[in-house]
Design goal:
This protein is an alpha+beta fold. Helices cover about 35% and strands about 25% of the residues. Helix 5 (about 165-185) packs antiparallel against helix 6 (about 190-195) and helix 5 (about 165-185) crosses helix 7.
Length: about 230
């Protein structure tokens, strides 16, 4: 059995997508490398938690949870929470402390935990209060637009905002683009070409590094929402 999930776009320009899924059994999965960060709300056995999952630079196995519901907000690269250290979130996660009822503490204030349906209202409040914001310089650099910063200053900017180097983000995004092409039914050779790899060997090395498996192995696996 695979995770059952759906996703939708957000009204917020800071967000890639909003997703939800559920499980009836503790299904093992591989958490794959990803350049973005997420807020994930987990509901299990009457308990609700809100976690901040940082970017991941390598794959690692996870056990999953039984009889649980998950809802996530995936933010775009360049979006960040100024009160949190980006570098401390890389390959890590923090669980926000619970307040009274269905609330959690976010930057010193008690916030109602959002749902899949009202996530955009929650995001609008976070943005208005400056708890989540976006650095346009990061977006410009990733789109190969001029930033008027020296290479060293730009690199420091990437590390400060995302916790990752510019090059690492580009490599992870390229690998994930190739993976998406395979999941959509494309051939391995087409993925090599369209994702911009020099050859199949280069893509295979990238897949092993970021996903822990080869393109051929991943091309025949069901998509899991929790693989990120």
């Amino acid at each position: 059995m695979s995770y059952l999930f759906d996703e939708r776009l957000s009204e917020s320009p800071l967000v890639n997508l909003i997703w939800r899924t559920q499980s009836t059994h503790a299904i093992p999965f591989i958490s794959q490398a990803v350049a973005t960060w997420e807020m994930v709300i987990t509901r299990q056995h009457g308990k609700v938690t809100l976690s901040i999952l940082g970017p991941e630079t390598k794959p690692f196995p996870a056990d999953g949870l039984d009889d649980a519901e998950f809802f996530g907000i995936q933010f775009k690269v360049g979006s960040f929470m100024p009160h949190l250290s980006a570098s401390s979130l890389v390959d890590s996660a923090i669980h926000l402390p619970a307040a009274s009822g269905s609330k959690v503490w976010v930057n010193g204030a008690a916030w109602e935990i959002p749902t899949f349906e009202n996530a955009d209202t929650f995001l609008n409040r976070l943005t208005r209060q400056g708890i989540v914001t976006h650095d346009p310089v990061i977006t410009a650099a990733l789109n190969n637009q001029p930033t008027h910063l020296s290479p060293r200053t730009l690199q420091r900017r990437f590390l400060s905002i995302t916790g990752l180097t510019h090059g690492m983000i580009v490599q992870i995004e390229r690998a994930r683009r190739a993976l998406t092409l395979l999941e959509q039914g494309g051939s391995i050779l087409d993925a090599v070409d369209l994702a911009g790899y020099a050859d199949q060997a280069h893509m295979t090395r990238a897949f092993r590094r970021y996903f822990g498996q080869t393109p051929a192995q991943l091309a025949h696996q069901p998509i899991s929402a929790l693989s990120r």
